[in-house]
Amino acid sequence: MEALLRPPVELWSTVTAFAAGILAWLAPWALMMPPGIAMATGATFISFGIWRGRQAWRVLRYQHHMKRLPEYRVRAGQIPVSRHKLFLGKGFRWTQQHTQRLRDTLKPEVQRYVQPGALYQWARQKEVAWESIPVLSIWAKGLRSRSRWNPLAPLPAVGGKPALHAVEPQEQPVWMDLGERVGHTLVLGTTRVGKTRLAELLISQDIRRGDVVIVFDPKGDADLLRRVYAEAKRAGRLDDFYLFHLGFPELSARYNAIGNFSRITEVATRIANQLPNEGNSAAFKEFAWRFVNIIARALVALKRRPDYQQIRRYINDIEPLFVEYAGHCAEVAGIEAWSSLVEERAGDIKERNLPNALRGRSMEAIACMRLLQENAIYDPVLDGLISAFKYDKTYFDKIVSSVGPLMEKLTTGTIAALISPDYQDEQDTRPIFEWMEVVRRKGIVYVGLDALTDTTVASAVGNSMFADLVSVAGYIYKHGVAANGTDAPDTDTTAQSTPTISLHADEFNELIGDEFVPLLNKAGGAGFQVTAYTQTWSDVEARIGNRAKAGQVAGNFNTMLMLRVKELDTAAMLTDQLPRVEVFTLMSVSGVDDSSDPGSGVDFKSRNEDRISVSEVPMLTAADMVTLPKGQAFALLEGGQLWKIRIPLPDGRADPAMPSDFEEMADAMRRSYVTNDHWYRMTERWWHAVSKAAGEPTASGGSACAW
């Protein structure tokens, strides 16, 4: 039995031993000892006093930490970085002993060692009562001060129960093996308890370690953005830093969410996945997928990179695309003077002779269709375009009406230029990034989706990015990281070692969809290590809409860090994985028995005894998760080892890499932008790369990569 919540009685023997030792040294005659024996006796007493003093100090420090933990701050430049370990903070391995100590703090008789005293409570009352009184307001300000010279200083505004960490005064740095990160990490914690600060700690280490770092931030947290920028600058990697932010389009880099794919069908899937899938909406979703796929195949066949602007244009009016592709097919078939033939045939068509489905269509498009049929020209893409063209326009508009509002949101205002970039615009100096190029350059990407402004657009762009990343993972699986970005025959295909890709998804319940699951399931072998942050697991279940699928997602996170949570079901995700342990309870028993035998000479008997009982309890309960102070967490690491950690608060004082405000960072980024005349051109090499993905023969007849 361990008893630390009690009066420090060791102090009495400590004082007595020191007094006796000093007396033996200074006045041996008072003890009637020769000097030599007195010196030895004094040394013995002093040694005994030191030993007892250490025991008293342990009790006093333990009781002090029960009421107030020391503040833990680390400057950004002092964050430890290892090539083999990930630093999480200070803490200790939680064992049965700590469960025992925590249960001991619940006893009524020890509350004066756990809760602040009456003088502290008086100070808290007076600092409010005296706040508006002219003279006493000065005293109130002094009581409110957190100076070290104020013995009645208020506790840090972290809330919770300090005893959860104070049960072990001996802290140590907590490190996690980097090999475990490939199994992905889940961070759970309610609002404003330190999730983003933990993200800053992990991101800082990943950047300095040289990983590819991708940060998804649906909210667009300015502090997190500034931290990522500052760490990129500190690590000398500012040239490889990309900012994509829907809330700051004038500053953001550009990205084509559907312009890169392994299979051409991915374009339609990324768009259709944003549509509702319940009830009658499922059928309209399938129709929308089919027509978007037809448009995407035609664009790629015409050597044009798909984007949202073009998809929206041809969903609303497919005739121009059909006419253009018909001319392309006629050229491939060797039909001469195609334009003249179309113009001549269009002049002969009378609308009154047309079937109802074709009335209102342009005569040029109808002429193209009839000429292609007469010349028996067959092409799978052309066949899809003709089938879409032959639909009655009113009926066609109805069956694709579900995709219209989504495309309207994605192509309205300044956001359209961000996610549907014009690759040939020499006036726009904002860079265009692609995930494969980011991986090859070991870049750093901050993605701010501005979900508070428009959740639909944020979700659509985020899911498209995740789908794109899954394609990148598939390419890396098959081909590795090619030096020059393509496997075309005329290109050097020297492979590089697969880099580590650290993906941090803050508020990932806003991002999760069908695209996120394969990223967790299968992308680990391609170097992806995902760290996901969310408030409650119910948010994820509500987003997915299926408890079984949510369980599938949870099963892919091998490491869990849980800060304070308010939902008991979320807390149970950690506590249910822990074993039960035995704790000891000391029970005092006393009793008195009177004697009924007058001749025995015994009138009564009394007894006093202490009994130790053993009971089995959970190592932690869900209620403990609810009372965690801010900045503290429990972590299940490396196969279920439970650690209690304190996350260091960031200390940005005198940090030369940290911009003083957002505008300073914006100015620096604008100066770093260069024209993109040599980036991502619509070249033969790009056509050569995507033609195989689209299922078409390449111009050179050789093989092409899937990217």
Provide a descriptive summary of the structure in words:
The chain contains 28 helices and 17 strands. The longest helix has 33 residues, at 35-67. The chain has 707 residues and is of the alpha/beta class. The chain folds into three domains: 10-67; 174-255 and 421-651, Rossmann fold; 265-414, no CATH class. The chain is elongated, with a radius of gyration of 36 Å. Helix 8 (195-209) packs parallel to helix 9, helix 13 (319-333) runs parallel beside helix 15 and helix 21 (455-479) runs parallel beside helix 22. The strands form four sheets. The chain has an eleven-stranded mixed beta sheet, sandwiched between helices. The relative contact order is 0.14. The model is unreliable at 483-495, 675-685 and 697-707 (pLDDT under 50). Helix 22 links the parallel strand 10 (501-505) and strand 11 (528-534).
Which properties best describe this structure?
alpha/beta; 17 strands; Rossmann fold; two-stranded parallel ribbon; 28 helices; 707 residues; 3 domains
- CATH fold call of the largest domain: Rossmann fold
Structural class determined from secondary elements: alpha/beta
For the record, the CATH architecture of the largest domain stands as: 3-Layer(aba) Sandwich
Determine Rg (CA atoms, Å).
36 Å
- Main sheet attributes: strand count, strand direction, barrel closure: 11 strands, mixed
- The total count of strands amounts to 17
Cα distance, first to last residue? Answer: 65 Å
CATH homologous group name of the largest domain: P-loop containing nucleotide triphosphate hydrolases
Q: Low-confidence segments, ≥5 residues, pLDDT <50?
A: 483-495, 675-685, 697-707
Number of helices: 28
Q: What is the percentage of strand-forming residues? A: 5-15%
Question: Helical residue percent?
Answer: 40-55%
Number of domains: 3
Mean pLDDT: 85
Protein name: Type IV conjugative transfer system coupling protein TraD
Domain TraD/TraG TraM recognition site: 504-629
Keywords: Membrane, Transmembrane, Transmembrane helix
Transmembrane segments: 9-27
